[in-house]
Amino acid sequence: MPDTIPPPPPPAPEPAGSLSELLKAPDRYALGIVGGGNLATRVAVALAAAAAGAALFFFASGFFAGWQTALLDAAKGAGIALFAFALCLPSLYVFSCVSGATLRAAQIVAAGAACLATAGLLLAALAPVLWLFAVSSSSPGFVTALAAVLAVPAMWFAVRPALGLVRAGGVRSAAGLRLWLAVLVVVALQTVTLLRPMLAAPSPEPEPTPFDAPGAKAAPAAPEKMFFLEHFVRTLDAPPPLTAYNTPNHP
């Protein structure tokens, strides 16, 4: 009989609680959350990955206005991810309980952080694409629309750890966590609007008026309150910034 080739050995599983396990085997990652193993480390690593991914994504978009704006946007991006997550922690717990969660509060936080980390890792993977168009385009509306389009798959796949919780028996339905992710996106978008501008350098401080005391600095103008959809529409209609190639006196 001819010699038979034995089948290759199965690949070694990813380290438990690692980011590679989160991406490749979200069901096993969720099973680890249900088991309650090393939750503090899971939350810390997931939030760090989410903040780093958001920072890299906004860093790439900020190159539209130069590297200084890119650095400022990177700090804003990390802050937006962590700030939105902190604001949405109460709704995360309530929506999880409504979905039939049998988990402790720490396990629910770990599940939410895993969803956010998945989105952050995907944003980091798409950052080079956004960078290319940010440095080669003169339309802030196009860069904003492209960033929104690239963020869609990141949020779409962010629900994978929640689906893994359903299969692991941690929750009866992923509907509550899906709704929580929608709330998280809305909060993040409004935070982006609060921290604007993102594709331009901050406005210089206003000059003091003759009525100000000698040596006093003029009070900065309060930013206009705005809903994120209004901000998005205004950005789409914004003209390209003036450069040496599109000024009226350029030959």
Outline:
This protein has helices at residues 19-24, 26-35, 39-62, 67-87, 89-98, 105-136, 140-157, 160-168, 175-194, 228-236.
Description:
The structure is a single chain. The protein is built from ten helices and no strands. The longest helix is centred in the middle third of the chain and has 32 residues. It is globular, with a radius of gyration of 23 Å. It is an all-alpha fold. Helix content is 63%, strand content 0%. The protein has one domain.
Which characteristics define this entry?
single chain, 251 residues, mainly alpha, 10 helices, globular
Q: Return residue spans where pLDDT drops below 50 for at least 5 consecutive residues.
A: 242-251
Number of helical segments with 4 or more residues: 10
Tell me the overall shape: globular
Please give the largest β-sheet. Answer: none
Q: Helical percent range?
A: 55-70%
Q: In sequence order, what are the helices and strands, one letter per element?
A: HHHHHHHHHH
For the secondary structure, the number of strands is 0
Distance between the termini: 83 Å
Which structural class do you get from the secondary structure elements? mainly alpha
Number of domains: 1
Q: Determine the strand fraction and express it as a percent band.
A: under 5%
Query: Kindly state the mean pLDDT as a whole number?
Result: 83
Radius of gyration: 23 Å
What is the topological layout?
Blueprint: H1 19-24, H2 26-35, H3 39-62, H4 67-87, H5 89-98, H6 105-136, H7 140-157, H8 160-168, H9 175-194, H10 228-236
Helix pairs in contact: 2-8, 3-4, 3-6, 4-9, 5-6, 5-9, 6-7, 6-8, 7-10
